[in-house]
Amino acid sequence: MSSARWISHISHVLRGSKVLLSLVCFSIAGIFFCTIALYAQEPPAPVGDPGKNKSIELSRREEAVRKEEERVSALRADVDKKIAEYEKLLKQLETIMAQIKESDSERMNNIVKTYESMPPENAAKDLELTDEEVAATIILKMKNRKAGATLAAMDPKKAAILTEKMSKTLKNLPLK
Questions:
Q1: HEC string of 1-54?
Q2: What is the pLDDT of residues 129-143, one digit of tens each?
Q3: Which secondary-structure segment (H or E) carries 143?
Q4: Euclidean distance between CA atoms 104 and 109, whole angstroms
Q5: Is pLDDT of 18 > 60?
Q6: Which residue, of 13, 127, 165, 176, has the fewest CB within 10 Å?
Q7: What CA–CA distances, in Å, run from 135 to 83, 121, 142, 175?
Q8: Rounded Cα distance, 124 and 105, in Å
């Protein structure tokens, strides 16, 4: 697999996980620079017969290439192992994030039910004092009749502000 495909595969798998992607990129860069350093080293020139010297030189280079191939193969296996570890960690993180999101959604639904069970005047007073983003989200998730009655019981200026926030929030919020 080419370097570009490795990096593409890694970035797709990690889906924006900048820290993990950075670690993988640094590992790949380290392999690359170590390989360059190894090839930059020239073996000492032997003294004596030029034909024999070329043969010895060729043998040395072949041995160096073989050793480098073994080293690169071992490094590639190490990188593959690290990628597998990172993929496993990513799956664990995705599972945890899904659990957190589900828990948050359950909590928000409970809050919405609480406000729906209140008289509209009391719900309106409480929501007027609540953070506008949170209040807009709660009202969006309320049943239409309850939400309308609650907004009607609010100060008109506050109701207008919350309605504007709801229109913006609606784009990003999965409703019921």
A1: CCHHHHHHHHHHHHCCCHHHHHHHHHHHHHHHHHHHHHHHCCCCCCCCCHHHHH
A2: 999 999 999 999 999
A3: none
A4: 9
A5: no
A6: 176
A7: 43, 14, 11, 15
A8: 22
